Amino acid sequence: MIHARGVAKVYENGTQALQEIDLQVAAGELVYVVGASGAGKTTLLKLLLGMEKPTAGELEVAGISLGKAQAEDIRRLRRLTGAVFQDFKLIPGRTALENVALSLRVLGVPWSENRQRSLAVLEEVGLADRVGSMVQTLSWGERQRVALARAVVREPRLLLADEPTGNLDATSVGFVAAVLARAGEKGITRVVATHDTRLLEMLPGRVLLLEGGRLHQVAGAGRKDRQ
Ligand SMILES: Nc1ncnc2c1ncn2[C@@H]1O[C@H](COP(=O)(O)OP(=O)(O)OP(=O)(O)O)[C@@H](O)[C@H]1O
Ligand SMILES: [Mg+2]
């Protein structure tokens, strides 16, 4: 699903956010990216979503080569991908249900099916009693879970999540772990940036450490030590 070889990202101001990234992620795999603040985790997720372009190396996601991707390739990648970023990007003035349902509405899913699937996912993230609440009235941790529900409801091929449990108590981390596990059962590839050892313990996966923009594997079955 993901093939990276010698990938680097230098931002316009000269910041080298990533260097010499070699990474292979198979379809259906769960990969955690850990590392200190500023290590490059969000940058890596943005490259995988085509929001930023690599400045060196080869990066291919779902068969789409991102170094030379055209706008149409990026749109195709976005349709295959569900993403939750640190600022959630929910639509204010709409309910939790409406925010999640929008993800299926743009795909033309009929309302009765849309409503059923959206409610089921909101229930999975522990928000069954908040579906009718305006998102701006929700707590930060509740908004975070609405954003995760919106990303998974379409059953994308690739799920990218940036610190999906940053604001959550242990019970809610359990909901997130369950959603990620269920996504795995559906064959969804998952790349999750996290500092949260609770999540890593609840749902083990391959762990990659970013240090100063370089990637090292620290745990996970059957892979070589340095990716
Ligand atoms: N748009 C940008 N322009 C210039 N530099 C940037 C930009 N975005 C990020 N950086 C820099 O790139 C480096 C990696 O940032 P990134 O946001 O990827 O880190 P992170 O691992 O996600 O950190 P955190 O845990 O705080 O979210 C940092 O030095 C950051 O200052
Ligand atoms: Mg970040």
SSE layout and pairing:
Elements: E1 2-10, E2 16-25, E3 30-34, H1 41-48, E4 56-61, E5 64-65, H2 71-80, E6 81-84, H3 96-105, H4 111-124, H5 140-152, E7 158-162, H6 170-185, E8 189-193, H7 197-202, E9 206-211, E10 214-219
Parallel strand pairs: 3-8, 3-9, 6-7, 7-8
Antiparallel strand pairs: 1-2, 1-4, 4-5, 9-10
Helix pairs in contact: 3-4, 3-5, 4-5, 5-6
Bound molecules: adenosine-5'-triphosphate and magnesium ion.
Explain what the structure shows.
The protein has 7 helices and 10 strands. It has helices spanning 41-48, 71-80, 96-105, 111-124, 140-152, 170-185, 197-202, and strands spanning 2-10, 16-25, 30-34, 56-61, 64-65, 81-84, 158-162, 189-193, 206-211, 214-219. The protein is globular. The chain has one domain (2-219): Rossmann fold (3-Layer(aba) Sandwich), CATH 3.40.50.300. A 6-stranded mixed sheet has the order 6-7-8-3-9-10, sandwiched between helices. Strands 2-1-4-5 form a 4-stranded antiparallel sheet, covered by helices on one side. It starts with a strand and ends in an 8-residue tail after the last strand. β4 and β5 form a beta hairpin. It is of the alpha/beta class. The protein binds adenosine-5'-triphosphate and magnesium ion. Magnesium ion is lined by residues 41-42, 86, 162.
